[in-house]
Design a protein that fits this description.
The protein is α+β, with helices and mostly antiparallel strands and 351 residues long. The protein has 7 helices and 17 strands. The chain has a 7-stranded mixed β-sheet with strand order 5-6-7-8-13-10-9. Helix 5 runs parallel beside helix 6.
Length: 351
C-alpha cells in the first residue's frame, strides 16, 4: 500500500511539474489583415488613367479637404486593426489593401501620425488597371522583413479579351517570426464581370501558390484580398481550392475560415439588405493546427474575425446599419469604406 501511495504521489508531483512548465510557456501573436480602402485617390491626375472622378474639378469635387479626411479615416482603421487581441500600440504586422491609386497616396497614408509612429512601410507595384486602382501591402518593419516583391499579371484567357488589362496579384515574400512567409494580395474582377473571370483568377493564384511551394515546400502562404466572390463561390472553392473545414485540407492545400463566418450571418459588405464576405484571408495547410495539439513551435493560425467598430456603420437614415462610406448617392459622408476589414492572428511559442 505504501509503495502504491508513493507511486501515486510521484505521478501527481510529475503531473503538477508538467502543468507548471506548460504555464510558463510564452507565445508571440502576430496580426495579419486585409482592407479594401474604397477609392483612396489623391487629387492629381495620373496620365493614362481614368481617374477624372477624383479630381477637384469633377462632380464629386474631390479636393484636399476630402482627401485629407479620407487619409485620416483610413489610417484610424488600419491602426486599430488587430487591437481585439493585441495592444493598440502593436497592431498588425501585415495589412493587404486594395483600391489605392498610387505610391503617392500610399506615402500620404503611412505618413498619417498613427501609422508614422510605428514606422509603417508599404510595398506597391503600379498595375495596368484603367482606373488606376492597385493593391499594396503595408507592414511593420519591426515584425516583417520583405525579401522579394513581384506583381504577377492577371492573364485574360479568352482571345476576345486579349487587349484588356486588370489588377494583378501582388506577391510579397518575407520573414515573419523567423519564418518564410509569402503574402499574395488580390483584387479580383468585379461583379460586373461574369463568374468565369474570377474563376480564372482563382486558377491563376493557385498556380502562383503551387510555384511558390515547389520553390520552397516549407513556405507559409497567405492569400488575401477582395475576391468579389464569397467563400463558397466556384472561384474560391473550386478554382483556388480553399476548403471549408481544416480536416479537408490536403497536403499543400488551403483553408478558408470565412466560409463558416458567412454561414453564421456575418459579412464584410452588404447589398440589398444581405451580407457578402468578399474580403477573405486564406492560409496554407502548414499554418494549421489540424489535430488540435496546440503545438505552436512554428507559426499557426490562432484566431480570425471581421474587424467591426460602431463608427464604421451608418447610425441613422436610409442606410442605417450599412457600412459608412466616403460618398453615397453623390453625397460626401466623410466615412470609411463600403467594406469591413478582416484580421487573422498567428501564434508561435517563444524560444
Amino acid at each position: 500500500m505504501k509503495k502504491k501511495l508513493l507511486l501515486l504521489t510521484a505521478l501527481l508531483v510529475m503531473g503538477l511539474a508538467v502543468q507548471a512548465q506548460e504555464k510558463q510557456k510564452k507565445f508571440s501573436v502576430y496580426a495579419v489583415g486585409f482592407y479594401n480602402l474604397e477609392n483612396l485617390f489623391d487629387t492629381c491626375h495620373d496620365a493614362g488613367k481614368n481617374d477624372y472622378e477624383y479630381l477637384p474639378t469633377s462632380s464629386s469635387k474631390w479636393d484636399a479637404i476630402k482627401y485629407t479626411n479620407k487619409l485620416h479615416n483610413m489610417s484610424k482603421v488600419l491602426a486599430e486593426m488587430g487591437s481585439d487581441v493585441l495592444p493598440k500600440s502593436v497592431g498588425c504586422a501585415i495589412i493587404g489593401v486594395s483600391e489605392v491609386e498610387n505610391a503617392n497616396a500610399l506615402t500620404d497614408l503611412v505618413n498619417q501620425p498613427v501609422l508614422k509612429e510605428r514606422n509603417i512601410q508599404f510595398v506597391h507595384v503600379e498595375g495596368p488597371d484603367k482606373r488606376g486602382v492597385d493593391c499594396a501591402l503595408l507592414y511593420n518593419p519591426k515584425l516583417f522583413t520583405v525579401r522579394d516583391v513581384k506583381l504577377v499579371p492577371y492573364v485574360y484567357e479568352l482571345p476576345e479579351d486579349k487587349d484588356r488589362a486588370t489588377r494583378g496579384f501582388l506577391t510579397v515574400s518575407g520573414t515573419l517570426a523567423g519564418e518564410h512567409v509569402t503574402v499574395i494580395v488580390n483584387h479580383w474582377p468585379s461583379r460586373f464581370a461574369t463568374s468565369f473571370y474570377r474563376e480564372c483568377a482563382g486558377r491563376q493564384v493557385k498556380a502562383v501558390k503551387d510555384s511558390l511551394q515547389r520553390d520552397d515546400p516549407n513556405v507559409k502562404i497567405i492569400i488575401m484580398g477582395d475576391m468579389n466572390d464569397d467563400p463558397q463561390s466556384p472561384s474560391m472553392a473550386e478554382s483556388l481550392g480553399a476548403r471549408r473545414e481544416m480536416r479537408d485540407v490536403e497536403e499543400g492545400g488551403l483553408y478558408n475560415p470565412w466560409w463558416n463566418v458567412l454561414a453564421g450571418g456575418k459579412g464584410t459588405l452588404s447589398y440589398q439588405g444581405s451580407w457578402n464576405l468578399f474580403d477573405q484571408i486564406v492560409v496554407s495547410r502548414n499554418l494549421l493546427d489540424i489535430e488540435g495539439k496546440k503545438d505552436y513551435a512554428d507559426l499557426k493560425l490562432f484566431r480570425y474575425h471581421i474587424f467591426s467598430r460602431p463608427y464604421l456603420f451608418q447610425q441613422e437614415g436610409k442606410y442605417k446599419g450599412g457600412t459608412k462610406r466616403t460618398t453615397a448617392g453623390g453625397v460626401w459622408l466623410n466615412g470609411y469604406s463600403d467594406h469591413l476589414p478582416t484580421v487573422i492572428y498567428l501564434i508561435k511559442e517563444q524560444k
